Amino acid sequence: MKTIQRLIGYLDAVNEATGRAVAWLTLGMVMVTFTVVVLRYAFNIGWIAMQESITYMHAAVFMLGAAYTLKHDGHVRVDIVYRRLSDRGRAWVDLLGTLLLLLPVSGFIVWVSWDYVVSSWALREGSGETGGLPWVYLLKSAIPAMAILMMLQGVALALRSLLVVTGHPEATPEHDPTQEL
User: Is CB count within 10 Å lower at the N or C end of the chain?
Assistant: First the structure.
């Protein structure tokens, strides 16, 4: 059981570090957006690369921060029933949801996006706009990266839930939905 808890800790740490790192991009988005607006309206200067960089940062925050949000139980859900369940009942819902939905869908996303991303890398695909960013292939790489990070966090969630279901109270989830509202 200690090995499972250690594995859960490592998986959580990967997504915690990734989420905290990409969170800083929100500050970058604000600063770049401010700069774009000032350049456009004060100096009548447009800069396509700066405008595209906002899109890149926005995509990175959402795609690479999704698993961090899952780790902290921050995704939207209809929890009218879920929050009324016992810890064990919630663990069952989390375990089944992870095994039947999260892991298969994430695996499908990796499978479907793989050739798309590989061909983009082979071409070193760049922006279709003159003066745009030359790294579209990096942006597209966020698609399978998001799915892989979600799968890693899904494994952590499934293992944590399995420990709760099997009666190990020290493995209860970090977030308690009964404390909301």
Answer: C
Look at the chain and count its residues.
Answer: 181
For CA atoms 159, 162, 164, 170, the dihedral sign is: negative
CB 117 within 8 A of CB 143: yes
- Closest C-alpha among 49, 42, 63, 51 to residue 133: 49
Question: Closest Cα partner for 1 from 175, 163, 116?
Answer: 163
Q: Identify the domain containing residue 61 by its residue range.
A: 2-179
Global confidence as pTM? 0.87
Q: Are 15 and 155 in contact (CB under 8 A)?
A: no
pLDDT (tens digit per residue) in 37-49: 999 999 999 889 9
70 contacts 154 by C-beta, under 8 angstroms: yes
Q: Count the domains in the chain.
A: 1
Question: Tokens 């990734």 label which residue?
Answer: 18
Over residues 107-130, the pLDDT tens digits come to 999 999 999 999 999 999 988 888
Nearest to 138 by CA among 35, 43, 54, 59: 59
**Would you state the structure tokens that stand for residue 59, as one six-digit string?**
């995509």
Q: Going by C-beta distance under 8 Å and a sequence separation of 6 or more, which residues neighbour residue 60?
A: 22, 25, 139, 142
